[in-house]
Amino acid sequence: MSTQIAPTAAELAALLSSRVCHDIAGPTSAMGAALSVLDDDSALDMRDDAIALLRTGAKQIRAKLEYARVCFGAAGSRGGEVALSEIQTLANPMFEDSRPDLVWPSENTAISKTAARVLLNLIWIGVDSLPRGGEVIVETSASADGGARLRVIAKGARLRLDEAYQKAIRGERPEDGYDGRSVQPYYAGLIARESGGRAEAQLEGDRVELAALIGPESGQVQAAE
After folding, report:
1. For residue range 52-108, what is the model confidence (pLDDT) as tens digits?
2. Of the candidates 93, 91, 94, 87, which has an alpha carbon nearest to the alpha carbon of residue 109?
């Protein structure tokens, strides 16, 4: 990989693709195994289990791709607003089988699509920081000019937040370079900075706190130009 601070456009595309592919590989492999069972005439007693596995895998893949489409893709890059209820609709099935529970104390406000992309990335990082379960609390507030304040708090046993994540979200290259996981906080921070805002991640005691300030819509248009 390059020794420069920021990844090149080619590196960023490759690493984000790796992140998405990693998450759909599991259910895809499980569906392949289920199809093998259905093709095996000697495994008729396992047919119902195989069909159930196919249904579960298809549901998981759809949830992951719909989430990634807004989180990383062009679906979340155009102007406009996204209601918090729409973000919940994407996040709840995405993390339905995860150990942490998602908690949504904020009212059903609307935030810019830029803010929504950053928030979806922060939620994903928060869930990943709790391998033993706990709570991921999602807080949002929007300003009249299209800006937003985002905060995701992960609380639970055996918290983890790699130092590379804390550097990457600030735009600082990790010592060992970027990989398919540390590229996600880098990407979230990049979007926030391009809007005129910032992002940070901290591990403090019994909680991981991920926060982002998203700049006003006018500043985002200016940055894009």
Report:
1. 999 999 999 999 999 999 999 876 555 688 999 999 999 999 999 888 999 999 888
2. 87
Quick check: 189 and 199 in contact, CB under 8 A? yes
Q: How many C-beta neighbours within 10 Å does residue 106 have?
A: 16
Secondary structure (3-state) at 73: coil
DSSP letter string over 32-65? HHHHHHHH-GGGGGGHHHHHHHHHHHHHHHHHHH
DSSP state of 163: H
Give CA–CA dist 33/135, Å, rounded: 33
The three-class DSSP label of residue 196 is: coil
- The DSSP string of 96-157 is TTSSSEEE--S-S-EEEHHHHHHHHHHHHHHHHT-TT-EEEEEEEEE-TTS-EEEEEEEEET
- Per-10-residue mean pLDDT, the chain, length 225: 69 91 90 91 88 93 93 71 94 91 91 95 96 94 92 94 94 90 94 96 92 81 42
